[in-house]
Design goal:
By secondary structure, the protein is of the alpha+beta class. It has one domain. 21% of the residues lie in helices and 49% in strands. It is globular and about 35 Å long.
């Protein structure tokens, strides 16, 4: 993960190619799910997919996930609740 920063009511996610800015007051919950992307050929059931997590947010009834936030399962367990607390959002771990 290259960077996640909270600036007031904005969650900024910085990747190699793109920076996302999300208005957190529009979000209803913070989401965590298994990584599925280029590095594991979009597979959910492989070892990487099971042990690497990505961060997402439900905004306006739509789930958005950000592969740039890929992290280990243990990092997700410690970092994500802290982000959710600062944003005053609940966390849902998506299977």
């Amino acid at each position: 993960m290259l960077g996640v920063k909270i600036q007031g009511s904005t969650l900024r996610i910085v990747s190699w190619w793109r920076t996302y800015r999300l208005e957190t007051d529009q979000g209803t919950e913070l989401l965590v799910r298994h990584y599925s992307g280029y590095l594991n050929r979009w597979a959910d059931g492989d070892v990487m997919g099971r042990h690497v997590k990505v961060l997402g947010m439900e905004i306006g009834g739509r789930d958005r996930f950000f592969p740039a936030t890929a992290m280990t399962e243990s990092a997700a367990a410690s970092v994500v609740p802290e982000i959710a607390r600062k944003l005053d959002l609940r966390v849902e771990f998506v299977p």
